[in-house]
Amino acid sequence: MDSKGIINIELLFCTLIVILLLIANLPMIENGLNSNIEIHENSKGRILANHIADSINEVNSNEYGFGKKIKLPESIDGNFYRILVNERETIVEFNDKKGKSTINPIKLVDSSNKTLENIELYNGRTYLIEKTLVNDNKTNTINQSSILIRQVGN
What is the pTM of this model? Predict the structure, then answer.
């Protein structure tokens, strides 16, 4: 009878130690899972920034009149995002974070050939990126290569 009691106490003691170890490691496991989720979201934002930058570079490297349509997703893993394109980079902002992707230097213009510092793209919409020529007698700009980004659908 005495040996059965000792075995039961040892089993109870070992079980208690295992439970305490699991409780102590639970925050580390949770942090690891949260870190993986955050890395996944950040990579999706970065992939979107790279896709837009690659599309702009592709259009810019082709002849005048070449265009490419891009469709932006509704969200990044359920999060609202904002995209800014300027002369040198594409910036995706979401969850108080920024993802940047560089582009070859370009001149951004609107549909009336006025130079823009940047343009904001909205989620869930379709845009046409087009290479154009700018001729402006006021600024003595003749046949300058530029990029026009305009919304073509929702």
Answer: 0.71
